[in-house]
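Postdoc handover notes: sequence design on the structure in folder B. Input tokens:
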């Protein structure tokens, strides 16, 4: 049983915790049935609870003082990319060229792109092929409950049972039928996750993650795509959300839609062949710049879903 201690963190910027956690980049955070809008997950086999006090303050509740060897505050600042200057995400020429769009984006500029555990993101986005966010969240929750560790934590509302995301070894040795029950009975998806987990446990995929910041983005994506079940979009999501490659620009249906509606890129109306996918990425980077194209693209994605599609569920 873990007793939690509270630390208040000044974010030094406007920060929307809820939009960040539930914008389609993470699926292990859950809203707890408490009256104070508390959100919980397990990081480094440790329960972590978060609560937003104000636009520039959050409370973190955790039973240990370090996560993955980093002081708690330093880890959280890195995890939520609080070191990234959002003034650099959209170039001045973008604001001048798309003034109406910029006005729509301003309320969403307090969303942060997270730096998450690479293995967790690999499995999560392998589960995400062709399904909605509620079903992705359900699959990820089932995988954690069945193959992760139970993490009990004592709160003012009583004992809370959380689950860690499974270690690579747990999924590498998983029974395919049992894992398939957690992946919407998709046996191919389960088999691909097991194969990827074995590659990660053996060191080949893990090494690619370690070296991800020191190689060209194309090389990283090609390495990830050697694994069955990881295509172009999933590789880009892994790079962006799990490996901190903010230059990686994933494209799905929503991104295609806003590339056409907001930027008039005619190729966005055509199917996503590999050639067209790469072409659209280059067009997006011409508009957004190279360094933060994926980061800015996720804010555009969130804005499109909320402001244009009026989608509320995540």
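Designed sequence:
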């Amino acid at each position: 049983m873990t007793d939690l201690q509270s630390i208040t963190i000044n974010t030094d910027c406007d920060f929307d915790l809820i939009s960040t956690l539930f914008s389609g980049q993470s699926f292990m955070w859950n809203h707890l049935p408490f009256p104070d809008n508390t959100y919980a997950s397990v990081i480094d086999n440790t329960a972590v609870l978060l609560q937003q006090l104000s636009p520039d303050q959050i409370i973190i509740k955790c039973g240990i003082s370090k996560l993955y060897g980093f002081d708690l505050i330093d880890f959280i600042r890195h995890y939520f990319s609080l070191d990234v200057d959002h003034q650099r995400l959209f170039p001045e020429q973008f604001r001048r060229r798309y003034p109406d769009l910029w006005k729509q984006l301003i309320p969403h500029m307090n969303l942060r792109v997270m730096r998450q555990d690479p293995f967790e993101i690999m499995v999560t986005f392998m589960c995400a092929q062709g399904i909605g966010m509620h079903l992705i969240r359900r699959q990820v929750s089932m995988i954690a409950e069945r193959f992760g560790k139970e993490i009990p934590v004592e709160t003012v509302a009583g004992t809370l049972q959380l689950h860690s995301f499974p270690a690579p070894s747990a999924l590498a040795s998983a029974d395919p039928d049992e894992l398939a029950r957690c992946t919407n009975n998709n046996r191919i998806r389960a088999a691909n996750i097991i194969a990827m987990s074995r590659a990660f446990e053996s060191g080949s995929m893990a090494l690619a993650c370690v070296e991800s910041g020191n190689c060209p983005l194309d090389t990283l994506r090609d390495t990830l795509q050697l694994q069955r079940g990881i295509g172009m979009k999933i590789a880009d999501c892994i790079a962006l959300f799990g490996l901190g490659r903010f230059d990686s620009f994933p494209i799905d249906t929503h991104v295609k839609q806003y590339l056409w509606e907001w930027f008039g890129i005619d190729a966005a109306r055509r199917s996503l062949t590999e050639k067209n996918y790469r072409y659209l990425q280059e067009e997006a980077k011409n508009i957004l710049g190279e360094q933060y194209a994926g980061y800015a693209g996720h804010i555009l994605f969130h804005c499109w879903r909320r402001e244009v599609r009026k989608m509320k569920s995540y």
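Context for whoever picks this up: The mean pLDDT is 93. Don't rerun without checking with the PI first.
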